[in-house]
Amino acid sequence: MTHNTPEFDVIARHFTRPATNAVLGVGDDCALVGISRGMELAVSVDTMVSGTHFFPDVDPENLGHKSLAVNLSDMAAMGAMPYWAMLALTLPKVDHDWLAAFAKGFFDLAEEFEVSLVGGDTTRGPLTLTVTIMGEVPIGAALRRSGAKAGNDVWVSGRIGDAALAVAHRHGKLVLEESDYHEAVMRLYEPTPRVALGQALRGMATAAIDVSDGLLADLGHICSLSKVGAVVELAAIPLSPIGARHVASDAGRNAIVAGGDDYELCFTAHPNSRESLQDLARVLDVPITRIGQVKRGKGVSLVGADGKPVKIDGRGYDHFAAP
Ligand code: ADP
Ligand code: MG
Prior knowledge:
Elements: H1 6-14, E1 39-49, H2 60-78, E2 81-91, H3 96-112, E3 116-124, E4 128-138, E5 153-157, H4 162-170, H5 178-189, H6 195-200, E6 205-210, H7 215-226, E7 229-233, H8 241-246, H9 250-258, E8 265-269, H10 274-284, E9 288-295, E10 299-303
Parallel strand pairs: 2-3, 7-10
Antiparallel strand pairs: 1-4, 2-4, 5-8, 5-9, 6-8, 7-9
The protein binds adenosine-5'-diphosphate and magnesium ion.
């Protein structure tokens, strides 16, 4: 680009890469992309605000990874194939070292998933990152939140809780050993979007969501849209060794079931699918665990090994909840 204003300098130096899967990428008024026959366009947007979604001292490379990862996770939860991303960046100042590290985190993940950055917007203001992701899903095959039926199993991928345990540690609600904190905080900053699993679940999962606000809250979204309830067994929730060390404390348990930021998939499926789901998990090398059951009624309850309800404080993150 020949423009040499600071804004165009930022775009040209850090965010202009060839769009390998688009008709036209960064540089014009719009990007142009082609949609394959028989496919629907899946689109999602996520904003991350400094101080709300990440600690202001976050490593910019981790932040670049996370800003795209949370969007890839939405594609995964829909069973969609991500292709194109757009990045709206609001920056307090132009810091090229910071931007280079951010772009590295973003593009390393984009390359891994063969996603092209096809456009965006660059403005000055409090640090805020908005990524729009677009992809394709075969017509009618997307995994919606509304398809869970009473009698279905509830499943989650991976392990739940480490990201929220790191946040709880930072907020002084519990104390992690230093090495545990360093491990847990990487789950917070560099979540693994379950894109291949999401696509493989098409036709098998009856409903799906990614765990961003908290396991019980996100399962609650499936339940309200599906007009059903669910019971989750605390002892069945897959934990890391760090989670296992903290699940007995109130603060630890709250973080695990009500904290968020895991970006694992929570989905429902008919019990007939158990074996095929386990086969699929083995092939993809992504662990999945059955944690409960969909019931008639409404709401999500958490039960202990004795079948009695387990009390928890939080129910997931709500930006507009009264403090
Ligand atoms: P407009 O004035 O039409 O809004 P801009 O000056 O904002 O255009 O952007 C010029 C081009 O650079 C557009 O193609 C836009 O999509 C792209 N762009 C702007 N900011 C970014 C960014 N942070 N990342 C990727 N592309 C960007
Ligand atoms: Mg613009």
